[in-house]
Amino acid sequence: MGKFFISPRKLPSIHTHIAMPTRRRLVVSLSLATLLLLSSFSLIHSKTPSQNNDDNNNNKDDDHDEDLSFLEEPDDISPPPGSHLNHPDLDHLDDDDDGGDFDDFSGHDPSADEAYKEPLVDDRDVVVLRERNFTTVIENNQFVMVEFYAPWCAHCQALAPEYAAAATELKSDGVVLAKVDATVENELAHEYDVQGFPTVFFFVDGVHKPYTGQRTKDAIVKWIRKKIGPGVYNITTWDDAERVLFSESKVVLAFLDSLVGVESDELAAASKLEDDVNFYQTVVPDTARLFHIDPKAKRPALVLLKKEEEKLNYFDGKFVRAEIAEFVSSNKLPLVTTFTRESAPSIFGSKVKKQLLLFATSNDTEKLVPEFKEAAKFFKGKVIFVHVEMDNEDVGKPVADFFGISGNTPKVVAYSGTDDGRRFLLDGEVTVDKIKAFGNDFLEDKLKPFLKSDPVPESNDGDVKIVVGNNFDEIVLDESKDVLLEVYAPWCGHCQALEPTYNKLAKHLRGIESIVIAKMDGSTNEHPRVKADSFPTLLFYPAGKKSSDPIPVEGDRTVVAFYKFLRKHASIPFQLKKPTSTSKPGSESSDVKESQASSTDVKDEL
Ligand SMILES: *[C@@H]1O[C@H](CO)[C@@H](O)[C@H](O)[C@H]1NC(C)=O
Ligand SMILES: *[C@@H]1O[C@H](CO)[C@@H](O)[C@H](O)[C@H]1NC(C)=O
Ligand SMILES: *[C@@H]1O[C@H](CO)[C@@H](O)[C@H](O)[C@H]1NC(C)=O
């Protein structure tokens, strides 16, 4: 996929706040950005009409002797093909979210330029790389961090002072921090598949991996030191011990018989698998005691200490790297994490993918969070418990919207993680027992997914049937009907351009019982049988084959092309009667009225 942009006004506040004064703290992981982006404004890529000529040619055989021009006759108010290409919202967005890159999906936001004057950053320790000296620098240095940036990108500007300070601090560690202006070095950017700004990589002996931590000096320094360091540090004196306990908010201590050897090696290896917890080892019983390990305990013993509540977790597995790392990753998060920009990366970056989210307003926090916490104890390492404060203006609304939650009554949502993205809703009272039962059903896959859905319309007898999440099965999966479904979004220009054509098609076909022409607002409704990665997406669900994947409708977006498509793919054959007289008879007046009505509709919508 090439370049893609999304217009800034559609970004959720979590992203657009970036130009505001608290910039430094606005660190959002890609996962969250993706999560939020995928939600409300999907991924548009325009399919140019007429790209699918092959299909049309094949169809010609069926239809070449048929004059279909009558289909287009009542004034076609759809814009000429291609005119939508001028639409200012021609948004392109790649839906590939597997990487750990930091993607600044907001593209060039001119308003951010006005609001933001680049501060003078002393970045003398940041090495400037160009195409011609890039390879040399990577080859001659064991550790190089490279930031691909664009001068206009506000996230990059926000990162600049942090990055410069990290460069200065890490100089003595033999780490090079470098930057590449990706708007100049296109080939380098292309070679490293840079799709957004800033994209930050860390090269160790020439091998790179994305930097996925927070964009602050401290986070960068800590992350790099972890990658280049010995993995595990010794605590030999009381002073060491106090300093560590004082300065770290989460720490692992192993109480060993020896500072070298197999156990120490396993510990060091486990440490390398963890990005944000430092590992220490000691052989001194008094140090162990200070870290709440019984000095008489059988060695090796290991504890994870957290400043947050719960504080102590004792490891009782086999003393090998995988088990230690697993133990740390499942216990390092608090029982309940409150959703904030800062906590988002650890929530979505966790190895534990399944989540239970409590949505409650601050009024209910005091009552419900303790219940939620109590339940969380039973799911450690299996499910992450997250509290979303619905009235938190920063994150509450975008997150609630993403999960399709509205209103002020508390709700618990189970979320299967970004990979398959299924959601389940706990109905009714939020108590420890209810949450436990719900969580267990969730783990055993016994719940029925919760769908984002508008209310089912009370009457639905227009030519174009309205489909929502909750009537999808009934309308689209009706085995006795051939169903054409348009998935659209209200703000999507292509969809608006298509509307008159689509309405006209539906009007022509309204007499045909076996065919349903339907549309669904994909920004507020969902169903597992719909995969729409762009708007509009047109899908055809043939009668009698509802358990197969729908057929995507590509090619021209004209009434004739749609009609031919239906003729070709419908399970139940049908034939439209050409009006007996092609000249304008009396019946025409009603046609005119209807098309006028629909043209008014279109104007209202635009
Ligand atoms: C790489 O080349 C650019 C342009 O010639 C120069 O400004 C920069 O200092 C060079 N960097 C290194 C590390 O040599
Ligand atoms: C810890 O102590 C051992 C034994 O003295 C030593 O080999 C090792 O290098 C020390 N580790 C660090 C990080 O200083
Ligand atoms: C919280 O409670 C107060 C007092 O009952 C009420 O005025 C307020 O609207 C409530 N806030 C929310 C977000 O429900």
UniProtKB/TrEMBL annotation:
Residues 105-229, 450-571 form the Thioredoxin domain. GO terms for molecular function: protein disulfide isomerase activity. Residues 578-600 have a biased composition (Polar residues). Residues 105-117 have a biased composition (Basic and acidic residues). SUPFAM superfamilies: Thioredoxin-like. It is found in: Endoplasmic reticulum lumen. One of its GO terms (biological process) is response to endoplasmic reticulum stress. Its EC number is 5.3.4.1. Residues 1-46 form the signal peptide. The keyword Isomerase applies. CDD domains: PDI_a_family (cd02961), PDI_a_PDI_a'_C (cd02995), PDI_b'_family (cd02982), PDI_b_family (cd02981). PROSITE patterns: THIOREDOXIN_1 (PS00194), THIOREDOXIN_2 (PS51352). GO terms for cellular component: endoplasmic reticulum lumen. Acts as a protein-folding catalyst that interacts with nascent polypeptides to catalyze the formation, isomerization, and reduction or oxidation of disulfide bonds. Belongs to the protein disulfide isomerase family. NCBIfam families: ER_PDI_fam, pdi_dom. PANTHER family: PROTEIN DISULFIDE ISOMERASE, PROTEIN DISULFIDE-ISOMERASE. This is Protein disulfide-isomerase. It comes from Clitoria ternatea (Butterfly pea). The lineage of its organism: Eukaryota, Viridiplantae, Streptophyta, Embryophyta, Tracheophyta.
